[in-house]
Amino acid sequence: MTRNDLGERSDGARNGGDVVVETLAALGVSHVFGIPGQHALGLFDAIRRSDLTFVSSRIENNSAFGADGYARATGEVGVMFLSTGPGALTALGALQEAYATGVPLLVITSQVPRDGLGLRRGMLHQLDDQQRSAANVTKSTAVVRRGAEIPSLLADAFALAQSAPAGPTWVEIPQDVLLDETDVPPVTSVVTQIAERPARAELITEAAALLDAASRPVILAGGGVRRSPGGPAALTALAERLGAPVVSTVGGKGAIRFDHPLSAASWIEDRYTTQLLEDADVLLAVGTAMGEVTSNYFTFRPKGRLIHVDAEPRVLEANHPGLGIHADAALALEAMAKQVAQRDRSAGERAAAELRTSVQRRLAEQDLGTELALMRDLRAAVPAAAHTFWDMTIAAYWAWSAWDPLDGEFHSAQGAGGLGFGYPAAIAAAIGSGERTFAVSGDGGAMYSIAELATARQHDADVTWLIVDDGGYGILREYMTDAFGQATATELSRPDFAALAASFGIPAHVATLDTVGEIIAGTFTTPGPAVVVLPALLHMFSPTHLEESHHG
Fold first, then answer.
1. What is the strand order of the sheet 53-56 is part of?
2. Three-class DSSP category at 111
3. Which of 140, 247, 254, 527 has the largest CB neighbor count within 10 A?
4. Cα(first)–Cα(last) distance of the chain, in Å?
5. What is the DSSP annotation of 259-292?
6. What dihedral angle (degrees, nearest 10) is formed by the CA atoms of 249, 251, 257, 260?
7. Alpha helices in 403-496 (DSSP H)
8. Helix 92-101 vs helix 60-74: crossing angle, to nearest 10
9. CA triplet 66, 69, 70: central angle to 5 degrees?
10. 361 burial class (0-12, 13-18, 19+ CB within 10 angstroms)?
11. How crowded is residue 546: how many other Cβ atoms within 10 Å of its Cβ?
């Protein structure tokens, strides 16, 4: 079999890799993330002959974070190519974040040839059961046995990834299926069906009756509201009919604008917010598991009735009993809004305003001038419409509560809590959206992502990366000091981040707390990647009182 100078096969033959790429094109995919590998070479040879854009990362875990960030920023399915064994396994930690947060990804990974599946033939990269390894962090797994199965299996996985609750799906294709010639006709059409998940009518009727009878209704809006098509508009409309204050979870930031009079913002780790949620005689929690962070580390104890809406049935009433409604957020909110009575909004607006005032008063009583100024300066420096990506670091923990997304989107790794999310996700989001993004990491988390400086440079991604360097794992240092009086294994040797970035040909700046805002603002006026290093020791706020200062 020969090829001409354009890489096209002179005999017109096609193989399983071509079928994969043709199917992705028919599904409307434009970008693919990943790293080549021995068993996956058929995929990469085929993508060369296509119009798909391949984004090459340096570590598979970061490829998965990249596909995740791309999906969040564009609203499309993030698609990945992975190789067998070590390549596939290395991506699992990042897939946990997408799975926990509900981000639609399609992971296409190679496998050993079919005659080795289930055996121990000593093949390179071979696992006993690669499919089972992925089952804990994906919605579905499938293994292709024949080339003719590829279009349907990929289309089904693509649709399932988007069906509420969204999440990663996984399709394995053996090496010989990818390389063998196929008589499958060129794929020009696919059949997909994204399942809708409306609420049962009697549940909506019961929920509306509870809300109408409530004197102090409160809404807790989670990431499921924000990700549900039409969710933010439906939430705002229902809140305005009920006159109910709305607390946003970390993932729910942006579900209702913070400048809306009924928004109680997202100070989810502050005891005043916990009290507002507890004191509601009817609490409507939508698109949230009310998990560890949202419940202020499981201190939340609802006193009234709970209405719990989520597309993932396993979270319903997992932490608190209530009226569980298995439904997509937007569909449930729209249905409730049609049945509840219009009421005066003044009490709800007053409750939201009083909560914000109480939180700010508590913060003013603590020695937090450095942290508050930094958050103000960063918010002023980053354009209102920018997508921001936050790693697991003290600055991000502040942002969970304090950051107003304005006209942009806030993305964080709090779903699974793994390190290394911010920078690779922001790179991919910049590539996909065509707009400059902003990423924040600590020095510990930055080392998980440092190889992606090469990716940012290779693809000339418009991304600003802020590295807050406090010499170690800062939040773990706080946890251990609070719990044990001293910290162990939290102090880190680290590189000269600015010099390292410069070695990749990336402009780098060392900032102070006084100059960091100005420097970051300047990076948004220049093309390509930029790195800003801020040596600073930050501390968390106390969610209760000074004498009870602890976090988590």
1. 53-56, 31-34, 78-82, 105-111, 168-174, 140-143
2. strand
3. 247
4. 62
5. TSTTB-TT-TTSHHHHHHHHH-SEEEEES----T
6. -10
7. 422-433, 443-449, 452-458, 474-484
8. 20
9. 85
10. exposed
11. 10
Q: In sequence order, which residues have a C-beta less than 8 Å from that of residue 61 and are 6 or more positions away?
A: 90, 91, 93, 94, 420, 448
pTM: 0.94
Q: Tokens 């911010």 appear where?
A: 422
Residue 411: both structure tokens together: 């993305």
- Name the residue with tokens 């399942």: 195
